[in-house]
TrEMBL record:
This is 25.3 kDa vesicle transport protein. It is found in: Endoplasmic reticulum membrane; Golgi apparatus membrane. InterPro entries: Longin-like_dom_sf, Longin_dom, Sec22, V_SNARE_CC. The lineage of its organism: Eukaryota, Viridiplantae, Streptophyta, Embryophyta, Tracheophyta. The keyword Transport applies.
Amino acid sequence: MVKLTMVARVTDGLPLAEGLDDGRDLNDAEFYKQQAKAVFKNLTKGHNEASRMSIETGPYVFHYIIEGRVCYLTMCDRAYPKKLAFQYLEDLKNEFERVNGNQIETAARPYAFIKFDTFIQKTKKLYLDTRTQRNLAKLNDELYEVHQIMTRNVQEVLGVGEKLDQVSQMSSRLTSESRIYADKARDLNRQAFIRKWAPVAIVFGVVFLLFWVRKKIW
């Protein structure tokens, strides 16, 4: 059964639409919505390059597809057929592109296409019962395969993003520290050079001065 449905722009993670009735019969609905937003955030950073993926989280699974810089995501029970979940997302994608395609890039506020909820709710009802003739036909459609779509764990997906952030921060810190070290090394080399040659320069200076004074006297 479909539990949550969210649509977001991949370039910046801006939420575009959402199923308004989603999560009413779901414990910890807000927790899973935050996880979905974390997935969107990872996608904006390019941490997950797959255009289709399933992500296991507790008793549920997130499924998403990315098309035209938009991510269509749903969360279903683990027992819900993967094939139906992705066909549900395909239906949403086709309608969203048809109705809002030329406005996606210019949308500036969250949930600019909130009216799309009407189509989400109508389509969700069609996929509610997996035993209807319509859905059984979709399950038996050999032309639509989902076996190649990767399934991962949510901790793994979000953890990768966190680790990459840490690596990036560490890299920036090391670069900054290496610059500071290089500057200090140059200062130390300069000081060592001065300490080494300053006495020689002073001696030569004194000799030259004495020679000049003596020449002036004579």
